[in-house]
Specification:
Number of helices: 5
Structural class: alpha+beta
CATH superfamily of the largest domain: Nucleoside Triphosphate Pyrophosphohydrolase
Number of strands: 10
Largest sheet: 7 strands, mixed
CATH class of the largest domain: Alpha Beta
Order of helices and strands: EEEEHEEEHHEHHEE
CATH topology of the largest domain: Nucleoside Triphosphate Pyrophosphohydrolase
Protein name: DNA mismatch repair protein MutT
Mean pLDDT: 89
Helix content: 25-40%
Length: 211
């Protein structure tokens, strides 16, 4: 039997990129490491794959540990490997992304790391491989947002068209024409108009919608 030499061990981790929207701002949940080579760095939430788990179960555990919520939309993004090897060990990450509406719930630490919501437009510097995964997630979400229900996962149970447009503009990084955007969203047939209005943003107010 031929033995292969030069093989290195492979550490498999799972990353869960958790996007949140609080009705005004798009945010990203990051964890500040308290030890190890990434000590004091803000990073994407992640953990090692346990022997009793599959990838989705690990992503669900990360999500529930940090937010306390189990039923949040989650989707597998893909597998990523770093360009460098360290100490004869290779590391591969299977990445997921989650979308949630942010209420005022408490966040919980992951292995002692401190979780915190960060404004998407003001993110701290991330490790290079984490930045690469985040960019891939953002590109995927932008592409899939042409199918409206995906970004709707970030909305509160009741929302306005201006709130929805604000969310789309934050994800895509550019403004949309107000009239065309409203027409396109209403044409999906997914929005159910409510009788009450949100009146804090303007005197006329904006009707609420539900899915």
């Amino acid at each position: 039997m031929k033995h292969h030499t030069g093989w290195s061990s492979l550490l498999v981790t799972v990353a869960n990129i958790i996007f949140g929207f609080d009705g005004q701002d798009l945010k990203l949940l990051l964890v500040k490491h308290t030890e190890g080579p990434l000590k004091n760095r803000w990073c994407l939430p992640g953990d090692c794959l346990q022997s009793s788990e599959n990838f989705d179960q690990t992503a669900a555990r990360i999500q529930q540990t940090l937010t306390g919520h189990e039923k949040i939309y989650r989707e597998q993004l893909g597998a990523f490997g770093p360009s460098k090897r360290t100490a004869g060990e290779r590391k591969a990450s299977v990445a997921f992304f989650s979308l949630m509406y942010i209420r005022r719930e408490k966040l919980f630490p992951l292995h002692g790391g401190r979780p915190e919501w960060h404004l998407f437009q003001e993110l701290p510097s991330l490790p290079a491989d984490h930045h690469h995964i985040l960019e891939a997630a953002l590109q995927h979400i932008r592409y899939q947002s042409s199918t409206p229900p995906l970004l709707f996962k970030l909305l509160p149970p009741k929302f306005t068209i201006p709130q929805l447009q604000l969310l789309y503009e934050m994800v895509h990084g550019h403004p949309f024409d107000k009239r065309n955007f409203s027409r396109k969203m209403l044409s999906t047939g997914l929005l159910i108009k409510q009788s009450d209005k949100e009146k804090l943003s303007s005197k006329r107010g904006a009707f609420y919608y539900k899915l």
